[in-house]
Queue: 4 jobs
Job 1
Amino acid sequence: MTRSDPPAVRFVEVSTDHDGQRIDNFLLRTLKGVPKSLVYRILRKGEVRVNKGRAKPEHRLAAGDVVRIPPLRMAEADEAPMVPPVLAERLRAAVLFEDRDALVLDKPAGLAVHAGSGIACGAIEALRALRGAGYLELAHRLDRETSGCLALAKTAEALRAMHAALGSRRSEKRYLALVRGRFPPHELTVEAPLAKNQLRGGERMVEVSDVGKPASSRFRLVEAYRDASLVEVWIDTGRTHQIRVHAAHIGHPLAGDDKYGDEGFNRVLAGFGLRRLFLHAQYLSLPLGGERELAVSAPLPEELTRVLDALEGAAR
């Protein structure tokens, strides 16, 4: 299914994660699948504006800047993705909340939030294709293998409010994760800066590093099993792979994590039926301006509850 309506101008507010990034790199990241030549063409022609002013490719963005992205016809930027009927139905059934300003999706594990790195269609591209013309932007991101609450903004004003809340820690994001070993009974806060794109064995990783960006996670034990623990995690920052790296850093890697996890532990959990990363974004709250606040929860997927049932049964 493709959109027949003409493309619309997009206004994207720069988040703290992109503070200091060059505008050309920001556009290449935001416009996944758009040819690099087209990105530089619209910059050269002055069609991209930052805070209503023209921007050269080397212009560096600041958090809070508003970037105007011109309409890009699909003939110029590859055709809008064909959304398989199975995916279309999954996305329609996954909507947890929607009003005039926001949409919250219970993102399935295995679905990327956007296209790129060999992925032709992510959640945002599929939703835009299914819904036709209109404003729709990701307010934040989830790893491809993480399920749960994913917020999208339907207006530029809502996106600014969401980014402001996320940047000032007026939001709340809670996750459920299954980790290796017996977790301590008290709440544990991890303050460990994270650096992206660190090479390890030829693979790009996120690592705890003194030169990284600040990152804070709080862990609380929910249920202890024989060799694993279900924990609730609050994140005060939203760094790439934050929970996965912080959990491994404190000696409790996530079950099913093939990048930062423990191979032996993963094999054991596979015996209990685990076929994915055990990380689920279960709750999200965001102020939307004024007295309005978005608060949504997503139930633990059935494939994860079955693993917990199996662990509990083995302990009897």
Job 2
Amino acid sequence: MTWSHPTLIDAADKLAADPTATVDSWWFTTKLHTDETVYWVKIHTMGMQGTCHSTVSLLQEPEGHSSTKQITESLDAVTLPGAPLDARTSILTISGDLDDLQSSGATDTASVQLTLQREEPVLYNSGSGLFPLFGGMNGQYALPGLTTSGSITVDGTTHQIGGRTWFDRQWGTPSSEPSRTTWLGLDSERAGTRASGTPSETAPPGSPHSKRTAHTLTRAHRTEQASGHWQLTAPSLDASLTITHRGLPDSHDGLYAGPSTVTGTLEGQPIAGHGYADVFA
């Protein structure tokens, strides 16, 4: 499966760990469903300054199971992705290639096994996949609409599930601490419409703060509503979106991570879907 894009990176090559990066991240967030139950799952591993940080989190809706497990290990105790892709820590595994991936993880009370297939183009942040961030150069792309199947086990009961997964690959060499930053990934119910980026209240004209398939968003703007939810506007795509968000159990002081539902208009047309957020407060 091939598509042509004006990018500066090779997504297939960049699946593997970057030995020059001080931060190296592989991040999966998934909306799964069985019958009337929805499971939000996050599987994330990140190499940073000689250590590996891994997270597996689960949120079940309507009101149900919530669990998370986080662990920090020496890089010598884990296997970070090489070529072919094969990552293993004490709580998760990741393997495969751009078109077919497998991901699994476990908390103390739940586990998940996922098979992921790509049917859409790679989404390159800022159009090129490279942009300045936190005083250094950052590389980032996403596989935002992965068709997902597999199983989830909660409190000893196993369910066969289906859904969609967002995979985000990021690496970089930051030279300063993260400031207050919001990242949003939006997956609409309209086929092929995805958005990834860092909306800001002070985005300079022409700054590529986020991107969706085949388009670059500029001057994306997020405001807090009285309800506590967010309003995202992007004039370049005639977008006005209401984002209703809630936290995953691994959210804590200084970091919010969670899923959301999305409604509004994009390019003048009604749109609905779901999304994900990471917020450094």
Job 3
Amino acid sequence: MKVNVEIFKKPKPFCEGNLTLWRNDYIAFEVLKKHLDSTIDSGSQKGTTIEKSVKWLRQKFNAKQTVLDIGCGPGLYAIPLYMDEAL
């Protein structure tokens, strides 16, 4: 099996990559649309899944603790975690 090891090398920090996929307006729009669709567990989670996750987090951690919502996605957990009630 022939493997291009170059694709597995870690890029330099803050270095622009060569992946042009996200520069395509149609793809960028469709990905964002999936992320913001609260009826499916796809790019992001359904609203009900987020609600259950936030409830679980609140049960596991002290209300005074700080939570960092980090990763790929539009921050759909940030507001429910900040608010007194989930979604």
Job 4
Amino acid sequence: NAQAVVTPGGPEAAHACAVEGYGVCAFGTPERRVAGVHIETLTVSGFTKTGVMGRYADGLTVAGVRSSANGEHGIGQEFSVRGTFAGNMTEDNAQSGLFVGDELEGTGTRIAANHSAGNRIGVHVRRGIHTAIEANHLTGNCAGVFVVGDETRPVAGDLDITGNTMAANNLYCPGNDRIAHIQGSGVVLTGAQGVRISGNQIVDNVGDSPMSGGVVMVPTFRGVGNASHEVTGNIVLGNGAADIAERDPLGGDNSYAFNVCGASEPEGLC
């Protein structure tokens, strides 16, 4: 569990990485991003915070890494652009297997061909845009994918979820004062716009949460709704209580086409 720090942020950033309990860090500053860092083929486990974390990074690549049993995320970045997370294994982390947050400037981040299991959320995008989530295998988490926005501008979303498998994400994760408990969720969209969900296999996600189901839309705890999502060409079956669910009275203008699915809320979305 050795630590590594790659940062132009000086002693303060290095101190944050070590003292706050991260594993491998690529920390820049708002004035000077750390650019072009590649972290590959290692195991990171048992840290208090995130196993591999980028902050104010440009072009961070994390590939072939196994990150497990960390107290926050397995692999993540925030306030960053153009990241690539590919071919990693993220297991049994307390929060997300893969996390992208606070990226609202045309990021171009790609999360591809990862395996994520036993986490609270397999892939979590919070206040992010222009991210591609593709060909990941997400199973045995409390939820497969979360896309979370709020009052930020531009509105979170405008991203693609393509060719993934989200199967039996049926662990139980307790809620808090901001969110209900999580269990049995394939994809959850909350407070986001313009998410394109296509060509995925979303099956057997079963639970008793307000967010349980295959593709589920709910408002944020601050009352921000969803809009303009496209759900096309997916296999969405065996999810309880619905394969596709619009549980968002504040949302609208979503479209559905060529999906193989059974039950929906309201009826007629399949």
